[in-house]
Amino acid sequence: MAATQEEIVAGLAEIVNEIAGIPTEDVQLDKSFTDDLDVDSLSMVEVVVAAEERFDVKIPDDDVKNLKTVGDATEYILKHQS
Amino acid sequence: MSKIKPSKGAPYARILGVGGYRPTRVVPNEVILEKIDSSDEWIRSRSGIETRHWANDEETVAAMSVEASGKAIADAGISAEQIGAVIVSTVTHFKQTPAVATEIADKLGTAKAAAFDISAGCAGFGYGLTLAKGMIVEGSAEYVLVIGVERLSDLTDLEDRATAFLFGDGAGAVVVGPSKEPAIGPTVWGSEGDKSETIKQTVPWTDYRSGEVERFPAITQEGQAVFRWAVFEMAKVAKEALDAAGLDPADLDVFIPHQANERIIDSMVKTLKLPESVTVARDVRTTGNTSAASIPLAMERLLATGEAKSGDTALVIGFGAGLVYAATVVTLP
Ligand SMILES: CC(C)(COP(=O)(O)OP(=O)(O)OC[C@H]1O[C@@H](n2cnc3c(N)ncnc32)[C@H](O)[C@@H]1OP(=O)(O)O)[C@@H](O)C(=O)NCCC(=O)NCCS
């Protein structure tokens, strides 16, 4: 079953917490991964790999750089999850 | 049909000795910054690298190999004449023929040991070790010298931000010989040639010779794609090698992954859920990425500093241009 927006944000929060050690409550739709959440370009790759597994989506390298905020990633996953 | 007498090998093989050679010149990040727009902080945070060694004119692929091998042979407690084969993994010996292994075998004073080079990028050590194990168990050599050696500084474009800070030079060698107990596990290895574009030499030598390109060839990579492959696929391969050896992460004493980038190492440690008790090689910090040489160099350092000891169980995994990979579990010499 496809995940809802809320579930995706909660899932991303857990992933970001695991990878960058940021408290889950800080992971909000308007937050930028690099500027607000201490996720650099390489941690972002790890976030993407974890999100792909968790939400059953494919996020190619070329699309990763467009995912600036938690909202961008959430929208992408909502649209592409199978 | 005549009956052919088969060769007689040892029941198992093990690493008996290890040696390393690091070039005398230590190159800090400041030197790298002369040619690229970057910072010490960026390089450290993205790769863990603080310094690397670059070879001088005398520190050739053969010379560094002879130094490292001499130490490995002494560590193994054998003499050079006992070595039946010399396998050299390198991508930076700039003379296509003859194989540099023959010169090394001669300089070491082996008794006409079989000698050849292999090309398996950063997986070269695991490929060489697997060949050596097979030769010893099959009986075509009693002792085999496996050398990983690179002068990557010769194949680095110092103006390329994606690679200038990454590579270093050096040689690492191990002596592999007979064993009564299994001490080198099954190898999990393979290639993914569909990803050959992600790490490669910019252009073939012939394009440079013909003047088609003016810039000397260098190694180039798609950093993010390589990083993704390494953290995602290589953690799985490492796990498969553990499973193939019948071990759990908790059975390990040491983890020696190819020293490509400390961030890849960190990620693998996490994904593999290695317990705190496992010593992790982080030689990349002061050696950079030395491709085929990185695993034996890191192994030698861990043993020299006492962070690892003889008899410890170590998971080793190499991966790189090809893309190729090889992982196995070994007992440390
Ligand atoms: C090389 C590597 C460290 C680069 O990191 P990266 O995060 O992929 O770098 P990117 O090219 O995506 O760039 C990310 C940001 O850093 C900047 N950047 C790139 N190279 C830089 C450098 N040398 N110094 C400073 N900043 C740099 C980019 O401009 C970009 O900034 P922006 O987001 O403001 O545009 C990384 O990809 C890597 O190590 N990959 C694995 C390589 C490897 O191990 N290869 C050998 C395997 S055997």
From TrEMBL, chain A:
<comment type="similarity">
    <text>Belongs to the acyl carrier protein (ACP) family.</text>
</comment>
<dbReference type="GO" id="GO:0000035">
    <property type="term" value="F:acyl binding"/>
</dbReference>
<dbReference type="GO" id="GO:0005829">
    <property type="term" value="C:cytosol"/>
</dbReference>
<dbReference type="InterPro" id="IPR009081">
    <property type="entry name" value="PP-bd_ACP"/>
</dbReference>
<keyword id="KW-0596">Phosphopantetheine</keyword>
<comment type="function">
    <text>Acyl carrier protein involved in meromycolate extension.</text>
</comment>
<dbReference type="InterPro" id="IPR003231">
    <property type="entry name" value="ACP"/>
</dbReference>
<keyword id="KW-0275">Fatty acid biosynthesis</keyword>
<dbReference type="GO" id="GO:0009245">
    <property type="term" value="P:lipid A biosynthetic process"/>
</dbReference>
<comment type="pathway">
    <text>Lipid metabolism; fatty acid biosynthesis.</text>
</comment>
<feature type="domain" description="Carrier">
    <location>
        <begin position="3"/>
        <end position="81"/>
    </location>
</feature>
<keyword id="KW-0597">Phosphoprotein</keyword>
<keyword id="KW-0443">Lipid metabolism</keyword>
<comment type="function">
    <text>Carrier of the growing fatty acid chain in fatty acid biosynthesis.</text>
</comment>
<dbReference type="InterPro" id="IPR036736">
    <property type="entry name" value="ACP-like_sf"/>
</dbReference>
<keyword id="KW-0444">Lipid biosynthesis</keyword>
<feature type="modified residue" description="O-(pantetheine 4'-phosphoryl)serine">
    <location>
        <position position="41"/>
    </location>
</feature>
<dbReference type="Pfam" id="PF00550">
    <property type="entry name" value="PP-binding"/>
</dbReference>
<dbReference type="GO" id="GO:0000036">
    <property type="term" value="F:acyl carrier activity"/>
</dbReference>
<dbReference type="GO" id="GO:0016020">
    <property type="term" value="C:membrane"/>
</dbReference>
<protein>
    <recommendedName>
        <fullName>Acyl carrier protein</fullName>
    </recommendedName>
</protein>
<keyword id="KW-0276">Fatty acid metabolism</keyword>
From TrEMBL, chain B:
<dbReference type="Pfam" id="PF08545">
    <property type="entry name" value="ACP_syn_III"/>
</dbReference>
<dbReference type="Pfam" id="PF08541">
    <property type="entry name" value="ACP_syn_III_C"/>
</dbReference>
<keyword id="KW-0963">Cytoplasm</keyword>
<comment type="pathway">
    <text>Lipid metabolism; fatty acid biosynthesis.</text>
</comment>
<comment type="function">
    <text>Catalyzes the condensation reaction of fatty acid synthesis by the addition to an acyl acceptor of two carbons from malonyl-ACP. Catalyzes the first condensation reaction which initiates fatty acid synthesis and may therefore play a role in governing the total rate of fatty acid production. Possesses both acetoacetyl-ACP synthase and acetyl transacylase activities. Its substrate specificity determines the biosynthesis of branched-chain and/or straight-chain of fatty acids.</text>
</comment>
<keyword id="KW-0276">Fatty acid metabolism</keyword>
<feature type="active site">
    <location>
        <position position="258"/>
    </location>
</feature>
<dbReference type="GO" id="GO:0005737">
    <property type="term" value="C:cytoplasm"/>
</dbReference>
<feature type="active site">
    <location>
        <position position="289"/>
    </location>
</feature>
<keyword id="KW-0808">Transferase</keyword>
<dbReference type="InterPro" id="IPR013747">
    <property type="entry name" value="ACP_syn_III_C"/>
</dbReference>
<dbReference type="InterPro" id="IPR016039">
    <property type="entry name" value="Thiolase-like"/>
</dbReference>
<dbReference type="InterPro" id="IPR013751">
    <property type="entry name" value="ACP_syn_III_N"/>
</dbReference>
<feature type="region of interest" description="ACP-binding">
    <location>
        <begin position="259"/>
        <end position="263"/>
    </location>
</feature>
<keyword id="KW-0275">Fatty acid biosynthesis</keyword>
<comment type="subunit">
    <text>Homodimer.</text>
</comment>
<dbReference type="GO" id="GO:0006633">
    <property type="term" value="P:fatty acid biosynthetic process"/>
</dbReference>
<dbReference type="InterPro" id="IPR004655">
    <property type="entry name" value="FabH"/>
</dbReference>
<comment type="similarity">
    <text>Belongs to the thiolase-like superfamily. FabH family.</text>
</comment>
<feature type="domain" description="Beta-ketoacyl-[acyl-carrier-protein] synthase III N-terminal">
    <location>
        <begin position="116"/>
        <end position="193"/>
    </location>
</feature>
<dbReference type="GO" id="GO:0044550">
    <property type="term" value="P:secondary metabolite biosynthetic process"/>
</dbReference>
<feature type="active site">
    <location>
        <position position="122"/>
    </location>
</feature>
